[in-house]
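for the writeup, i need someone to sanity check this before i put it in the appendix. the sequnce is what the collaborator sent (i think, or maybe the updated version? ugh). structure was predicted straight from it, no edits. if anything looks off just tell me and ill rerun, i have time this weekend
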Amino acid sequence: MIRIVILGTGNVAKQLFDAFKVKNAIEIVQVYGRNPRTLDKFKAGIDVTSDISKIKKADIYIIAISDDAICDVSKKLNLQKGLVAHTSGSIPMTSLSKKIRRGVFYPLQTFSTNRKVYFKEIPICIEAESKEDYDLLHELASTISAQVIQIDSDQRKSLHLAAVFANNFTNHMYQQAQEICEQNRINFDILLPLIKETAAKVQDLSPLFAQTGPAKRNDLGTIQKHKALLEHENHKKIYSLLSKSIQNTYGKKL
């Protein structure tokens, strides 16, 4: 059995907590949170603390907190043994304190409050400084995920950047689309089948070949009509920038 301590109380920490607590091969020894009020959702049968000096012994300590706090929290850990792994996509493994065994346990997924995810389908990217620690992280990750991938810190930074384009920027486009719908008294839900098909299509086709739309077709008349319909200058800038990028990708000129 692998004994773990989770440091953090946010979305990632809670989702990992829920995934690990039902696995017989895993024992959650403790949850640490800097703010005592955030620990209530972890209290059922689990020891919790807001005092970092009272962290219990474990095989793996998972730091699932904001990127800016990872280095500082790792330096405050007074451990005799045990592997410390953070869950960040953008922070190098070497940002963890040199006094500890270091690793990375990065689940490549978006986590939102009260939105359950299924870890079996989530890639978990791991990194460690020794084969022994890598094997330990791999064993831990394999209890909840069918996709465990060795990714070093440089690759992970680029992967996180790609994820921002694929997820964060895409979601922002949904929000912009919702604004346009609301301005014209259209229910945003009418776009959901299109959104689902767009996401499903890239599982079978390269995004390069899945692209459609007026910019791909070089339909200048439609592009100009769309720009004229847009009321907000920000929407026009985004539309023009993305249309130009698509045109450049397919070798056409606006």
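The CA atoms of residues 120 and 144 lie 6 Å apart. The chain has two domains: 2-151, 157-249.
thx in advance!!
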